[in-house]
Description:
There is one protein chain. By secondary structure, the protein is of the alpha+beta class. It is built from four helices and eleven strands, in the order ααβββαββββαββββ. The chain has an eight-stranded antiparallel β-sheet. A three-stranded antiparallel β-sheet has the order 1-2-3. The chain is globular.
Amino acid sequence: MRALLSLGLLAALGACTAERAPPAPPEVPADVATDAAPASPSPSPAAETPASAAAGKSAATPDGDLGMATFAGYGEVKFGTLAVDMGKAWGGALKEVGKDFNASCYFMTPAWVKTPAEFNFMISEGRFARFGTDSAKYAAPGGGKVGMRESELQKLYNNALHASPHKYTDGKYLSLAASGVAPTKLVFETDAQGVVTEWRVGLLPEVDYVEGCS
């Protein structure tokens, strides 16, 4: 899947034409998500972000393990932000990836990433719609990370993750819909051994795209 994303980001990306009329997402247990933006439990010191520290931390800090990922966006970069305002919200320069091939759906990446799959923002119809990573340094909302096993994730999320077959491998998609915010969802991808290889958070339908923008 990582190969597909990396290749897809640097080649022609599929059109984002899905209708934005998803059914209301299911409720998430209160200890997993909140009405505003689900706070991350603290499975490890790396996933902790004290409110005082987060308030004074620049969104441009390249340390996802500080817990800046939420169901509402990433740090100060909130879902729905206009593409032209992404750099300001992020606090630094962002590279556009794939816009030449598909101006309606493409990606933005910080200058410090080595490959787009390491960390990326998806822009759909001119607005920020999703972010994702295949790096173990970033913590998803709730504390999940690349490298964790499915059993660890289910325990961390109180068995609230919905499992479905992976489209291309013998792995799975493990997903969790947010409550109290716009229709957003967290999706983990695992390999055949049940180990997380990547995760993403975003609006519907973009968060469910498995081939870049399609």
